[in-house]
Each structure stands twice: as C-alpha cells, then as structure tokens.
Design brief:
It contains 9 helices and 13 strands. The protein is an alpha/beta fold.
C-alpha cells in the first residue's frame, strides 16, 4: 500500500516541476526586459553623447589666456500632465521616461548648469492651487539634482498662459518656485532668460514693464563689456521661447501668437546683442539666422508625449566661443517593439511548453530525420 502511494506522488511531481520551471523562465525573461527597457537603454543611448570640443585659448594683444569651459544642458517642453487632461498611465509612462533620462544624463555627462526652456507643466495656465502643488512636487522629484548643479527654468505659455490669459497670480506662483532672475552669469558667460509670453501684449508689441526690465538688463550687459575687456565678446545667450520672427522660421506659425512679432524680435536683438539664441515651444529642432549672423536654435521636446525621439542640447561654452551638439534619448517605438516582441516570444514559449504548439527546434529535428530515412 505504501508503494502505491509513493508511486502516485511521483506522478504528480513531474507536472508541478514543469510548471515551476516555466514560471521561472517567464519571470527571468520579464525581469531582463524590464531592466533593459526601463533602465539600461537610457545608459546605452546617452553614453554615446559627448561634450563638443571648443577652443579654450583667447589672445588679447600679446597675452594668451586659457578660458574656462562651462558645460550646459538645454531642455524644453517637458509638459508634465495635470489632473484634467492626463491619464494616470500616460503620466506614469512619460514622467518615468523623463526622470530616467534626466538622472542618467546627470550621472554620465556631469553638466554644470541645466536650462529648461518653457512649458514645464501642461496645465499650469489653469491648474488649481492643490494641483499646482502636486505638479511642482512631481517636477522636483523627477528633476532632482546635486547642489553643485544649477537648474534654471524659463516660463512658457503652458506654465502661465498666453499673454491674453496670463495674470499676476500665475506669474508670481511660477516665480515663487523657479525664481524670477533674468540675468545669470557663470565663468564669464552671461545668460539672459526671457519669458517671451510677457513680451507679447495685445497691441503693445513689448509691454512697458517688460521693456523697462529688459533695458535694465541691457545696461548691465553693456557695463560688463565696458569694464571687463576679457568678456567683450561674451554677448548674452538669450534663452527663452519664440525669440524669432515668424518669417524667419522654417515652420509656419502665426505671428504674435506662436512666435514674437518682428518688432519685438528686433528690439530683443538690439538690446541684448546675443551671439546665440536658444528657444523652446516648437517641440522640434529648427535653426535660423537673424541678420545673417545671430543663430537661433529651437530645442526639441524632452518628452515622449511630444516626440518619438526626444533629445536635448549640450553646449561647451567659453566667454568668447561656444560649440553645441544634440544628444538623442531612446526612441519610444523601439521600446514598444521590444515589449511586443517579448510578449509574442512568451506566448510561443508557454504554448510550446504545454504541447499546444510544436517546438520549432523539435520540428526541425523531425524534418531532418525524415529526410535521412528517405
């Protein structure tokens, strides 16, 4: 009787062992794919990016000096979803992508300063105080950074509204979190951060309050060039959005709505005399030249929600020179294709394990055996 019971137990043991073996295989494959698609792929993509080379020596008459190089990252249009338009899965997926991309870039590239050029939030222009606090908390978690890294943020139309829906409350709410400074200087390089939404009042081109503020910044820049000859060619880098006339873009936008008016653009160029303009808002890369000499580069969106292939700009900048390069993040379609391929593989593996689908390997052996017997 004991022998019969022992034999019955052994018969049940083999199917259980087979099921455990299948489960372990499935868990191992799923874990490996998640590890690659959610962590390692960001390192693989950003590891290929390098800071561009820039000339570091400057000659002033008979004296030659070695200039410090500032490593700056430029992002744009993160569009963190709010409580109204954002589905929870959309939030989770896109915000995880930006968090992993940003944290990986900080670790691998070690930038000294990071600029985010507008549209940090998607619903800042109408969010309630409670929703705004939640959005800010999520942003600070995603874009956390060491204390030695400077993070500079410019307001966009989704943060405070277009000029016709912007008000003092929204501007002050934004500046309370992200500061209201317009002129930022480091290593002898001046950056002017311009919120172009405030430059486009109805019928006024540039409103008087904003105009007065920009004129003050212009005076400070001119004094810097006059009293510090080393920085004479260190014109301001104007970081903002839409700082170009519509006629000079290769993407059609409505003037005074998607881009600044010609009048406002010309005033900015005359006051600040920049050597480089970096802007957001378009979600795409676009390069134009103002007056044939001042380049403007539109920085693509950093989020999968706006682009299949997000990217950011890396700049090696000295007081007299600069070089830019683009760093691409993982493509969303590649990640989705990997996931779909793995799901298909796991289905085939499971069906084969239970004998519901012939193993391709065994089928091949059987076919070879039949050919040999002929």
């Amino acid at each position: 009787m004991a022998m019969i019971e022992l034999g019955f137990g052994r018969q049940n043991f083999h199917p259980l062992k087979r099921k455990s073996s299948l489960l372990l295989k499935l868990i191992a494959v799923v874990f490996a794919v998640l590890l690659f698609c959610e962590f390692l792929i960001y390192y693989l993509a950003i590891f290929q990016c390098n800071w561009p080379e820039v000339k570091t020596t400057a000659s002033d008459g008979e004296q030659t000096t070695r200039e410090p190089v500032l490593k700056a990252m430029f992002l744009a249009d993160t569009h963190l979803l709010g409580e109204f338009l954002g589905h929870w899965l959309d939030k989770l997926r896109r915000e995880w992508q930006m968090e992993r991309a940003f944290q990986t870039a900080l670790w691998l590239l070690q930038p000294e300063v990071v600029f985010i050029l507008g549209d940090i939030f998607d619903e800042g222009k109408w969010s309630t105080p409670e929703a705004w606090a939640d959005d800010v908390e999520r942003f600070q978690k995603m874009f956390r950074h060491p204390s030695h890294v400077q993070l500079k943020v410019v307001a966009g139309n989704h943060d405070i509204g277009f000029h016709y829906e912007m008000n003092t409350y929204k501007v002050e709410r934004f500046e309370k979190v992200f500061s209201s400074e317009r002129l930022f200087s480091w290593k002898g390089i001046n950056f002017v951060m311009v919120n172009s939404v405030a430059l486009n009042g109805d019928g006024c081109g540039i409103c008087s309050e904003t105009e007065a503020e920009l004129i003050e910044v212009s005076h400070r820049l001119n004094c810097s060039r006059e009293h510090y000859p080393l920085y004479r060619r260190s014109d301001a880098n104007c970081s903002g959005e839409d700082a170009a006339p519509a006629e000079e873009r290769d993407i059609p936008f409505k003037e005074n709505y998607d881009v600044l008016s010609r009048e406002a653009s010309q005033k900015l160029l005359w006051w600040l005399q920049p050597r480089l303009v970096l802007s957001g808002h378009t979600h795409s890369a676009c390069e134009v030249h103002h007056g044939g000499r001042v380049p403007e580069l539109s920085v693509p969106s950093f989020s999968w929600r706006n682009r299949n292939n997000p990217s950011f700009i890396m700049g090696s900048i000295t007081p007299t020179d600069y070089t830019l390069s683009k760093c691409y993040l993982p493509r969303e379609d590649v990640v989705l294709i990997i996931y779909c391929g793995v799901v298909g593989f796991l289905v085939v593996l499971t069906l084969t394990h239970f004998g519901l689908l012939a193993s391709p390997f065994l089928s091949g052996l059987n076919l070879l055996g039949k050919r040999k017997t002929r």
